[in-house]
Amino acid sequence: MMDRTVHSYEDARRMARKRLPWMVFDYIDGAAGNGEGEASNRRAMADIHLQSRVLRDVRHRDLSTTVFDQRAEVPFGIAPMGMCNLSAPKADVFLACQAAKSCVPIGVSTVASTDMETMLALSEGHAWFQLYYSGDGSGTMALVERAKAAGYQTLVLTLDVPEVGRRPRELRRGFKMPFKIGASQFIDFALHPRWSISTLIHGRPEMANFQRDGFTFDRTESRAGADWETLKKVRDAWPGRLVAKGVISVEDAVALKAAGVDAVQVSSHGGRQLDGGVPPILALKAIRDAVGPAYPLFYDSGVRSGEDVAKALQQGADFIFFGRAMQFAIAANGEAGLQQFWAGVSSDLSSAMAQMGHCDIASLKAR
């Protein structure tokens, strides 16, 4: 019998590729252009080396840390991802429950396939709402008010999508939200009956945050009009913590800090926006140096393992977010796959800390 255990990111991706329709797999796995941006960030991550040390008592290791003064069991959480239920029915539920279990943040996307109120409840208050500012902003600000009313304490404003990056793999598969089923998609779904039957039973994933308030979300709508006045408008309307996500520039990070943003998340949107962009892992240290040692700095993009977490922490991040890896783990083996991948990352990080002579996260990221 084939081993369905998810031991690594590579396991998760390999199994997900077999189980998911091509259209869905390419949506999750895809990147902008030829994928060079994602690949160059992975190469840069691989080129960062961890220093091993010997003869240090590292028997008792603690992976916990704090995020906005709240204790987290591990220094990594779940990035906001649109339409997670494409990977498997109830994927959002599995992710929210994992966030609750580990007391870590989970980003709830504007285009999540489970509504923001349900996600906040399932995560036991650990959810952060991720916001796109689009169109004339009326729908966006309505979502801000809704998140406020729901009880969210943290808003994540994604800034690196003035226009949706051109992703040829999606275009070739005819991926659209909501789905438009043609002959090629029908064949695709027929060749992946397990996913198709399960999806049919549970219902087609929808953009759940747009099913009750009388407005819709156009994924391709331009967000190019957002500027510093837009940020001020959101900052003035949001009384809680505000995170700016999608930052690669040192100058932007410094300006966002000065504008009253509570944290910056260094990210290239997983390589899905600008194919020739600067690898975010290389930008991380320079941004940390610029914003100072105490300013909250988060990171996502190209993180695959516990050693990657250690690298990002040593480059200046306070907390790390995983994206597509979580969806692949669920696609591979459901909730069990997610738990297996989570345990593997935790074990990998703990082992790396032992090799490096560190017993806690503060020591690992000392700067």
From TrEMBL:
<dbReference type="InterPro" id="IPR037396">
    <property type="entry name" value="FMN_HAD"/>
</dbReference>
<feature type="binding site">
    <location>
        <position position="132"/>
    </location>
    <ligand>
        <name>glyoxylate</name>
    </ligand>
</feature>
<feature type="binding site">
    <location>
        <position position="245"/>
    </location>
    <ligand>
        <name>FMN</name>
    </ligand>
</feature>
<protein>
    <submittedName>
        <fullName>(S)-mandelate dehydrogenase</fullName>
        <ecNumber>1.1.99.31</ecNumber>
    </submittedName>
</protein>
<dbReference type="GO" id="GO:0033720">
    <property type="term" value="F:(S)-mandelate dehydrogenase activity"/>
</dbReference>
<feature type="binding site">
    <location>
        <position position="272"/>
    </location>
    <ligand>
        <name>glyoxylate</name>
    </ligand>
</feature>
<feature type="binding site">
    <location>
        <position position="109"/>
    </location>
    <ligand>
        <name>FMN</name>
    </ligand>
</feature>
<dbReference type="GO" id="GO:0009060">
    <property type="term" value="P:aerobic respiration"/>
</dbReference>
<dbReference type="InterPro" id="IPR012133">
    <property type="entry name" value="Alpha-hydoxy_acid_DH_FMN"/>
</dbReference>
<feature type="binding site">
    <location>
        <position position="167"/>
    </location>
    <ligand>
        <name>glyoxylate</name>
    </ligand>
</feature>
<feature type="binding site">
    <location>
        <begin position="80"/>
        <end position="82"/>
    </location>
    <ligand>
        <name>FMN</name>
    </ligand>
</feature>
<dbReference type="InterPro" id="IPR013785">
    <property type="entry name" value="Aldolase_TIM"/>
</dbReference>
<feature type="binding site">
    <location>
        <position position="130"/>
    </location>
    <ligand>
        <name>FMN</name>
    </ligand>
</feature>
<feature type="binding site">
    <location>
        <position position="27"/>
    </location>
    <ligand>
        <name>glyoxylate</name>
    </ligand>
</feature>
<feature type="binding site">
    <location>
        <position position="267"/>
    </location>
    <ligand>
        <name>FMN</name>
    </ligand>
</feature>
<dbReference type="InterPro" id="IPR000262">
    <property type="entry name" value="FMN-dep_DH"/>
</dbReference>
<feature type="domain" description="FMN hydroxy acid dehydrogenase">
    <location>
        <begin position="1"/>
        <end position="367"/>
    </location>
</feature>
<comment type="similarity">
    <text>Belongs to the FMN-dependent alpha-hydroxy acid dehydrogenase family.</text>
</comment>
<keyword id="KW-0285">Flavoprotein</keyword>
<feature type="binding site">
    <location>
        <begin position="323"/>
        <end position="324"/>
    </location>
    <ligand>
        <name>FMN</name>
    </ligand>
</feature>
<feature type="active site" description="Proton acceptor">
    <location>
        <position position="269"/>
    </location>
</feature>
<feature type="binding site">
    <location>
        <position position="158"/>
    </location>
    <ligand>
        <name>FMN</name>
    </ligand>
</feature>
<feature type="binding site">
    <location>
        <begin position="300"/>
        <end position="304"/>
    </location>
    <ligand>
        <name>FMN</name>
    </ligand>
</feature>
<keyword id="KW-0560">Oxidoreductase</keyword>
<keyword id="KW-0288">FMN</keyword>
<dbReference type="GO" id="GO:0010181">
    <property type="term" value="F:FMN binding"/>
</dbReference>
<dbReference type="GO" id="GO:0004459">
    <property type="term" value="F:L-lactate dehydrogenase (NAD+) activity"/>
</dbReference>
<dbReference type="Pfam" id="PF01070">
    <property type="entry name" value="FMN_dh"/>
</dbReference>
<dbReference type="GO" id="GO:0005886">
    <property type="term" value="C:plasma membrane"/>
</dbReference>
<feature type="binding site">
    <location>
        <position position="269"/>
    </location>
    <ligand>
        <name>glyoxylate</name>
    </ligand>
</feature>
